[in-house]
Amino acid sequence: MSDDAMSDNLPPRPAGERPGVTLPAKGRVAGVDYGTVRIGIAISDPDRTIASPLENYTRRGPQRDAQRFRQLVADEDVVLFVVGLPVHLDGRESEKSIEARKFGAWLIETTGVPVEFFDERFTSREAEDLLLSADFSRKRRKRRLDMLAAQIMLSAYLESTHSTGGSPHGID
Fold first, then answer.
1. Fewest beta carbons within 10 Å, which of 28, 89, 113, 123?
2. Dist. CA 125–CA 165, nearest whole Å
3. 26 close to 46: Cβ distance less than 8 angstroms
């Protein structure tokens, strides 16, 4: 997806500021580990208790990307996207955070599904460590890394919604 496809910059919201998103009682949440080349995708069960890795999607241009995410919503009954937000250790947002926010705005525009952002610090490192401990080859790790990072981030999001009565400690 080109920057032109996501040129409507949304100003970053301060941490803790959340839009009023009302979700149905059931429906799947898709976790997204945003990347400019590959996007890791994880999906929850309809009760939003378990996250599973779904796929690593290789970007193919704005139209094909839009088609894939619309199809994902239709096939998996997605009611919410949770986009991982890469932030610095001190909590400040990074350049990649701005790109992830633009991508989230594009997802809303493209699919009509609400988006929330969630801190993804250390998810790629944790995913890499898990794959290394499983003794996967470099090639097998690369094929699984992004969707596993998305699963780790989505699991943390789902856990935070259950432990706080439905209000995650995300970064919105």
1. 89
2. 29
3. yes
**Short-list 156, 148, 159, CA closest to 56:** 148
> Is residue 19 a part of any domain in this protein?
no
How far are the Cα atoms of 41, 71, 127, 146 from residue 131, in angstroms, in the given order? 17, 29, 6, 11
**pLDDT, tens digit (0-9, with 9 covering 90-100), for 28-76:** 999 999 999 999 999 999 999 999 999 999 999 999 999 999 999 999 9
The Cβ of residue 5 has, within 10 Å, a number of other Cβ atoms equal to 17
Q: Which two tokens stand for residue 74?
A: 């239709």
Q: For the domain that residue 39 is a member of, what is the CATH number?
A: 3.30.420.140
Domain span holding position 131? 26-163
Per-residue pLDDT at 110 exceeds 60 = yes
The two tokens of residue 45 are: 């069960």
For tokens 């080109």, the residue is 2
Predicted local distance difference test score (pLDDT) of residue 1: 45
Residue 5's pLDDT band, with cuts at 50, 70 and 90, is very low
pTM: 0.74
Is residue 170 domain-resident? no
* Alpha carbons 156 and 140: distance in angstroms, whole number: 24
The answer to whether residue 83 scores a pLDDT higher than 60 is: yes
**For the stretch 132-150, what's the b/e string if a residue is b when 16 or more beta carbons lie within 10 angstroms of its beta carbon?**
eeeebeeeebeebbbbbbb
